[in-house]
Each structure stands twice: as structure tokens, then as C-alpha cells.
Amino acid sequence: MQGGSYAARTDRLGAISAALCYPGFAADEATPLRIRQGVKPSYQNYQMKVRAAATPNMTVIVAAGFCWVDNHDVGGYGAYTCVNDADKILNIGPAGASGQYRKDAVVASVYDAETSGSASEWRLEVIQGAYAASAGAAVLPALPNSAQLLASITVNPSVTSITSGNIADMRNYSVSAGGILPTTLNSYPTRPHPGQVMYLSDSDLFVYGKADGTVAPLSLGTGAFSFARKSADTSRSSTTTMTADPHLTVAVAANSTYAVDAYLLYSGGTTGDLNVALAGPASSDGSWSAVGYGRGVPASVDTNGYTIRMNPNSISSVQPRSYGADTVDESLHLRGILRTAGTAGSLAVQWSQAASDSSATIMRTDSWLRVQRVA
To answer: Over the stretch 137-179, which tens digit does the pLDDT of each residue have?
Structure first.
């Protein structure tokens, strides 16, 4: 560099790649100069977002923003900064005939003649997918070697416009080394560097990388709590299908132990009543029991009608237990223990009616679930 002339690769490695965060996946260990490519985070993550036209047609619009794309033609050639300074309109190819479904990919692609081909540029482009006989069979096409996927576009037979419902956001994000990385519970790096902090936007939770390669919730170090409260009533009628409550879910780390307690407020018809269970991540184990209104089992209730039987129920098999309901609010007091294995995830309260009834069973606002990490 002192000589005044040096390769662009030196710029990419020294000025760009050196400042960006580590990818965090096992496959990248063999190429230590790799970076985590992705879009620059922003308020509401609008940068490089793909959206439909104001009056839907066979185009999509890519918002202005920055993204970084690593060179995947040759290892160790550094990352490129791609700048889109205004909305970019991209055309979607005509839809197929009846019975022809496809998925197109919107990407930021880098082409560098130094490592492959003859072009030296970056592009926002649409890669058209192959046709399939059903929507479920349609898959994304192969992408250029050095590209960042921005969105998936579902193109159904004979359509003449792309709406917001046809666009799936596929962006991931990158930050400078040491920055807090926005990601999701299902897509965070599985091997972040120790101390890398990530914000799981779909769980409203901070997690961090540990020295053993695992990830733990930052807010759930030993002794700390995680809490979920119902912010609205949820009604279910004519169903005995156990389903997770939309509010009563908390994130839990891998290889950890938690004390669990919950306070459930509910009401319903005396026929439908209530089934309750706890569901943890894959391979987790544990048990719980609860004190609540009995469901027609005289031997298990005291003179006030509350169960005193405390036999444990399995978390690993998502074992439900039935409790009685009434037209006035009742409460259920639940306690237990959860042990997770090698998979992080969430602990959720699942519930349904104990017997199908058109009179709804309602899980009430201010019911709550709390876990405390103890090991």
C-alpha cells in the first residue's frame, strides 16, 4: 500500500472484511477470512427490502440500502460493499399456464472477472425458478456463486400481478465485528464467536455465543427469569386439538435446567372444560403438576372442588391434563421443571378443550408463564 498501487482484494480484505462480523457456521471454519454477508440493519429493517408495486403488476421494488456480499468463487478474496441509492424496479417473468407454479429469487449478485467470468459489476436481479406441478413442490432456483438472497417470489399459474402476499422476505443481516446482530430464532448462527450478542427479532430476546460453541439467552443467565403474559383473551371452541397459546411462550437455551411456574386464568362451558400441557424444544425433558378445578373426579377433589392430586405430567411427551371450567373465571396454578438437551427453542403452554363444545373455552388476559434458569 505504501507503493501507491495495490490489488482491490487488499481493500476488500483490509477495509471491508476485517471490520465485519464472523459468519458463525461450522462450514466457514475452513475459510477463516469469510464474513457474515447480509443487509445493513436499520429502523424496521427497511434497507434492501423487496415490496410490491403500489398498484400491483409483474414487478417488485427493492428499497435503497447497503449489503455486503462475500466472494464465493475463490476463498479469501474478501467481501464487496453493494450500495443501492434509490428504489429499484425489477421485472418478474410472465406466469406459467394452468398447473405451473414457480418460485423466483430476488438477489444482490456480485460478478468479478478477477475470480470468475468476464463481468465486473454487482446487480439487483431476479433469478427465475423452475416450474412445478404444485405450489408446495416449487423451490428456489440455484443462485449465482456470490449473491445475497433478498426475497422469494411466489408466481402462481396465470397471475398478472405480484402482491405483498406473494413476497417472502429472505434477508439476513450483518454488522461490524462486536456489533449486535439482528436475526431470528430459526436462523441465528449456530457457532457464533464467544461473546457475540444477537437479537432474536421474532422472540424479543438477546442471546450470546458461549466458548463451547453453543448459544444461551443473555437475559437467562443462571438465576435470571424470563416471563410471558397474555395481552389479550384467546377463545377456542369445538376443538380438542392441543395448540400453543399465542402469548404464553418463552425462549430457553440448550443444555440448561429451568424451574417453571404459571398462573392461568380461564373460563368456559362445563362440557368443554380445559386441557393443558407444556411443550419444550426437541429432546427436552421434565415434568409439571397443577392445582386447579377438578373435572368430575370426586376422589381427587376437596370440598371446594380443587384438585389435590399432584401426580407429575411429562413435558417430553407433551402430556395433557384436564381441568374443569365454568362460566366464571377459574385459575390454574402450575409448577414444574424443564431440562433442555442440545437444542435451544421455546417452552410453550399448549391447551384446548377437554371435550369438543360450541361454548368457547377462553384463556384470559393476564395469564402468565415464567421460567428461571437454575443450571
So the answer is: 999 999 999 999 999 999 999 999 999 999 999 999 999 988 9
- Which of 368, 127, 143, 167 is CA-nearest to residue 262? 368
Task: Locate all alpha helices (DSSP H) within the chain, ordered by sequence.
Answer: 8-11
Using the 8-state DSSP alphabet, how is residue 140 labeled?
P
Torsion of CA 133, 139, 142, 146, to 10 degrees: 160
| SS3 of residue 27 by DSSP | helix
Beta bridge partners of 289: 335
Beta partners for 332?
264
* Alpha carbon distance 356, 369 (integer Å): 25
CA angle 242, 248, 250 (to 5 degrees): 115
Is pTM beyond 0.85? Reply is no
Q: Which DSSP state fits 177?
A: T
CA distance 322 to 331: 13
CA 309 to chain centre: 38
How many C-alpha atoms does 360 have within 13 Å on its Cβ side? 8
Grid cell locating 303: 370440598
225, amino acid identity: F
The span from the CA of 233 to the CA of 231, in Å, is 7
* Beta carbons within 10 angstroms of residue 347's beta carbon: 27
Instruction: Please give the distance of CA 50 from its chain centroid, rounded to a whole number.
Output: 19
Give Cβ neighbours of residue 172 (< 8 Å, ≥ 6 apart): 36, 37, 38, 39, 148, 183, 187
Q: Residue 257: pLDDT band by 50, 70, 90 thresholds?
A: very high
Quote the Cα angle for 285-287-289, to 5°: 165
C-alpha grid cell for residue 272?
368443554
296 pLDDT band (50/70/90 cuts)? low
For residues 201 and 184, the answer to whether their CB atoms sit within 8 Å is yes
E strand or H helix at 286? strand 285-291
Cβ-based burial of 103 (10 A; exposed 0-12, middle 13-18, buried ≥19): buried
* pLDDT surpassing 80 at residue 116: yes
CB 207 within 8 A of CB 220: no
Sheet of strand 50-52: strand arrangement: 50-52, 59-62, 88-91
